[in-house]
Design brief:
Shape: globular
Catalytic activity: D-alanyl-D-alanine + UDP-N-acetyl-alpha-D-muramoyl-L-alanyl-gamma-D-glutamyl-meso-2,6-diaminopimelate + ATP = UDP-N-acetyl-alpha-D-muramoyl-L-alanyl-gamma-D-glutamyl-meso-2,6-diaminopimeloyl-D-alanyl-D-alanine + ADP + phosphate + H(+)
Strand order of the largest sheet: 7-8-6-9-10-11
Function: Involved in cell wall formation. Catalyzes the final step in the synthesis of UDP-N-acetylmuramoyl-pentapeptide, the precursor of murein.
Protein name: UDP-N-acetylmuramoyl-tripeptide--D-alanyl-D-alanine ligase
EC number: 6.3.2.10
Pfam family, one: Mur_ligase_C
Largest sheet: 6 strands, parallel
CATH topology of the largest domain: UDP-N-acetylmuramoyl-L-alanine:D-glutamate ligase
Length: about 475
Amino acid sequence: MIHTSLTAQQVVDATGGALVAGDAAARVTGGILTDSRQAAPGTCFFALSGERFDGNAFAPEASQRGVSVAVVSRVEEGFSSSCAVVLVDDVLEALQKLASWWRSQVEPLRVVGLTGSSGKTSTKDLLLGVLGQAFRVTGTQGNLNNHIGVPLSILRAEKEDEAAVWEMGMNHAGELAPLCAMVRPQIGVITSIGSAHLEFLKSREAIAEEKCTVARCLPEDGFMIYPADCDFVEMIEASTRAKLVPVGGSRGLVRAEGLTSDRDGCRFRLVIEDSGSCDVALPLHGRHMVSNALLAAAAGWCCGMDAESIARGLGEARLTKGRLRCLDADGVTVVDDTYNANPESMKAALETVAQFPCSGRRAAVLGRMGELGDAAVQEHAGIGAFVRACGYDLLIVTGCDADTAAMAEAAQGGSVRVEQASTAEDAASLLAAAVQPGDLVLFKGSRSSGMERVMHQVFPSSK
């Protein structure tokens, strides 16, 4: 919810629009929204338009439902007389301008801006847990990290907030620069530089160059946090004037020592260079989650927190749904990692689950990974071979295309039984017929593959 001092006139001034109806003193007290179905008294509606919809057409209805201010690029008939109507050339650009203005209104604010090929949202959740131990903190909800989600996240900040964690995503060159200009972080985090977005950026080097936009935007008195073992460390370090904070490995300023794992998660000694150490009980599984935790710990350290407070925040971490969430379903251990997938996160999940204790068989139900371009067949084949190498007993591949066929074919051999299902329903039927109490099942795939549908059909309690 945005601060109650926001008025229609301030919207006009910040966006460069014109007030064409209503009262300039109309107040926004209920937040900013882009979905007219969520319209409520006191809100401000931005009438975004896309290929399949025109928000201007829904603006009058939103006004009838109590919206205080409507920002439109075309004025339709039927507006409530109590609604202030702001006319702009481009509604999305107006939303971003308002967010940029509001960012300047919530100073002083410690802002962490993070990006990466994988691990962004998990790291964001961990950051919120850590910083929440010392500050009133706001952050990105879910994965609202694009050109629409970032300004909406900024507009949720309140003047009473002391810290913010804003996630920034991209899949094309040039997309991070305007997001960084809105977020204006003092602390930058790059979680990883992997193969995601090869379809549009063509090479990992080009992906790294785009991710380094975050490093370039930081002030001289800021901090740049990144994995010490990243393939593009030199590029990151050469891209920023901020203080360098490598994490992990043996040379990280923040690192984990004595790592062990059990069914409850991971345990390690958090070591912060020249600032002490503390034991951490991380309620999450996998080395990749430990890496994410170290990035969050480093941000806490950059904000002046001590090791004990950071460890407490990590120990209380709760991730967004769909990230290595373990649950028991009638004796079957279900691992829900359906949130999204790319080659790096897929391998991390497969490796992590392969180490879980299991009295029965180990199964993986995997879907297609998106945005891999010309590398898609090769990357999917690599995942199939990885499943076989990890010693899984059953692999069910959902989808019927060259990519999923390559995954299924590469998994053949050894002890793994491989099934390929053309639809989610077929995959659910195959799994339901095969699974027994004591088994362990991992579900993972890109959002477009809808792996949660398979999971929910076989295990309704996973919803």
